[in-house]
Amino acid sequence: MKTLPAADAHLTEDEAEEVFGAILDGETSEEEIARYLVDLSDRSETSEEIAGAARALRARLVPISAPPGAIDVCGTGGDGHHTLNVSTAVGLVVAACGVPVARHGNRAVSSLAGVADTLEVLGLDMAAAGQSAERTLNEIGICFLFAPNHHPAMGRIQPIRKKLGRRTIFNLMGPLSNPAQVERQLIGIARPAYVPIYARAKARLGGEHTMIVSGDEGLDELSLAGGNELADVRGADFEMRRVDASAVGLDHAPVEAIRGGDAAHNAKALKALLQGTPGPYRDAVLLNASAALQVAGKATGWTDGVAMGAEAIDSGSAEALLAQWIDLTR
Is 296 a member of any domain? Predict the structure, then answer.
């Protein structure tokens, strides 16, 4: 068994790829992995380490083909706020606007209900959805890439993450390792001060256009509660900006207004949202959908994106898409 470096040893991108390759290939003990993940998180991972670790995970994934312009919308998780499934709803809304969405995710690790848990309650057969992901993405413009199906190397890591019950570098690696190899993404992270570090990691990996966002209160998505940090990453460069919900015509609301629960609770809220129920949950989805539509090149600005997202909900298109998706995977 290999011994992992001390956490205070800052790794180059190549060194990080080698270390995480050893972790993913089972060349280190579970105790050593757990110790290293905690120490690394406490010290805070560098952009070079995140990029190198993501490269190791990318090298071991099972890919799918995706239509041109496909995007992913996801959060790193681990923010501790236990909100409703905003990214899940955003994916449906954006796909209903005509943008292919290759949604990459998993069951809950440190939250009450992950995207897979909630979609399953709504009637989506996760095993069938995983097996038909490439087909549904190309036929109806949406799929769920259930992480265990595409990252077999993560099999021995998931129990360790579950036992730790806290965010680690694997929360940061996941969004950078989409099996559809998308070039456009909206990624939410739980640490606003960390946005530029994560943006540098994404810039090292390349891509057409990515927005990395974080609510000031540590939310891993654009927040209605106050301000938001945003990094606009294009290729190897990025620009930092601030974004506020009120600036795009949406009301401020505290995080508690979109507090979620278990999968059944979150599924009920998502169904009501798709049926047009107004309120903070809808506004949070519209704010994040607007960002995703801009990343996709579909919307020209924030208000345009909000309007497009509202139309996708109010016309019933997003709800109809979910029903179609469920039917295709039965």
Answer: yes
